[in-house]
Amino acid sequence: MSDNFDGGPDFSEGGEAPVGGKAKGRGGAGAKAILNLLKWIGIGLGFVILVVVIVVIVVRILGTQSKPLTELPNAETMQRSTPTWATFSNIDPITTTVRGQKDNEEWSIMIEIILAYDEKDKTVPTELGQRRSQMQDFLRRYISQKRIEELLPAQELILKEDLRTQLNNNILSKPFIKDIYFGKFQRSQM
User: Residue 159 burial (CB < 10 Å; 0-12/13-18/19+)?
Assistant: First the structure.
């Protein structure tokens, strides 16, 4: 071996390079370049093979865990159904008068309110029964403070949400009411 070792293999004939540091014969620098090229090609092929193996393994794992999609969902199957709740309908119909668009107009209002709650909570019917009169009075006052514009059919969803929030936050001990239904809702100008 030579004292001028550059880290690569020595391919000179006779095992040692001449004192000048150059190999005799053919292929000293060319052989190193070819070997270096083959080394990088081997590394590249090894990397490609590794990536292919990983992809095949991942595809097999994911393929066994998922169900095949046999039917595409349509609008009917994607539509969320509303939950069914137990109802409390022991509140007497609320009958009151409200002001119309002009202050001198009066409207007679009669609303039958039904409260929806989760039937899994067994304490709800008891509390609703105990607070029946309190809720009746609150609902009458609440409705009588509204104007007819706020009680029209186009505003019913807003009215229901506000009633639900008011009852849950101001009357009941916990937010039991999940929805509000109107059994009857009559409006007539006086």
Answer: buried
